[in-house]
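Supplementary Note 2. Why include the ligand at all?

Several targets in our set were suspected to adopt different conformations when bound, so apo predictions alone were not considered sufficient. For every target with a known small-molecule partner we therefore ran a joint prediction. The input for iron/sulfur cluster is given below.
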Amino acid sequence: MKSEKPKLLLHTCCGVCGAWIPELLSKDFVVDLYFFNPNIHPKDEYLRRLEAAERAAQVLGLKLIEGEYDPKSWLEAVRGLEHEPEGGKRCEVCFDFRLRQTALFAKRQGYEYFASTLTIGRNKPARIIDAIGQKWAKEFGIKFFSGDWKKKGGQVESDKKAHELGLFRQNYCGCVYSMR
Ligand code: SF4
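The joint prediction is reproduced in token form.
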């Protein structure tokens, strides 16, 4: 029987984010995970985070799609912003880069909505991510589901879930500049 719930593509950046948020969204949507993170450096770290996201998807019974890992195109997009602090202009470009591709892929694959786990991050304001999501939603004719996952103890819940599942937890945001 066809599900009544709309299909949503959830951009996820790691296993910690990929554990609690999709479980919450699955009450109202048919959720697939989209791992599109060419910002992550080095490749070993990328593979560790991908593996954790795959494990979370497997436990939750969700499909995970890996996007293209092309760090060169991401580095090109943030050129000139290397010395920005975390939470500054480089991060806005980074959000934009990842959400544009998520919206485009979701539209092409017939999803009604797209969303992102990014707002769970301490330096990732929901108002900026929402504005970017809405911009690409309008551009590609798809809906963006806004969610400030930091609210209502989202970070604690995500950490708890990741701990239960024994998932890899990163200790820097992701790009080479955030390793400093
Ligand atoms: S610090 Fe994080 S959000 Fe900012 S540019 Fe680097 S990976 Fe992207």
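The domain at 7-179 is CATH 3.40.50.620 (Rossmann fold). The pocket of iron/sulfur cluster is lined by residues 39, 86, 90-91, 94, 173-175, 177-178 (CB under 6 Å). Comparable summaries for the other entries are listed in the accompanying table.
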